[in-house]
Amino acid sequence: MAVFLSTFANKVDRKGRVSVPASFRSVLERQASSGLILYPSFKHPCIDGCGDERIQEMVDSIDRLDAFSEEAEDLQTILADARQLTIDGDGRVMMPKDLLDYAGISDTIMFVGLGKSFQLWEPNAYAAHRDEKRKRARDRGITLPMAGRGSDK
């Protein structure tokens, strides 16, 4: 399975282009994705990203909701705000200015792998977010039950 891993800091050039990390491009290629899809995060001051496979899973999940429910309407805004970006021959994408503004990103983008998806952060905002989440995990003593290990009861 191809997953987005690790964290990379890449510069945004004067034209608003940024290089997509090679490992992220590799995941997108293995997923036969036509590019990457970005949208403003619902939860954090960052940009959420994924490939075609993941956005299709999200569409399918939203379609299973009552079509006229408030929950469906709320989640459909993800699709309305999403941008499908094509990676150029040099491995770069042109970042939409409104997404950069939403995340407070100016000259450097942190690409943060989250498994089936990824996020784009302003570096200092990501550092604060990461530190806060790790502290919360330590304070709560969070553990991770591993999938497929005797939890079939």
UniProtKB/TrEMBL annotation:
Domain SpoVT-AbrB: 7-54, 82-125
The protein's name: Transcriptional regulator MraZ
InterPro entries: MraZ, MraZ_C, MraZ_dom, MraZ_N, MraZ_sf, SpoVT-AbrB_dom, SpoVT-AbrB_sf
Keywords: Cytoplasm, DNA-binding, Repeat, Transcription, Transcription regulation
Assembly with partners or alone: Forms oligomers.
Gene Ontology molecular function terms on file: DNA-binding transcription factor activity; transcription cis-regulatory region binding
Gene of this entry: mraZ
Annotated signal peptide: none
Similarity comment: Belongs to the MraZ family.
Biological process, per Gene Ontology: negative regulation of DNA-templated transcription initiation
Subcellular location: Cytoplasm, Nucleoid
One cellular component (GO) term of this entry: nucleoid
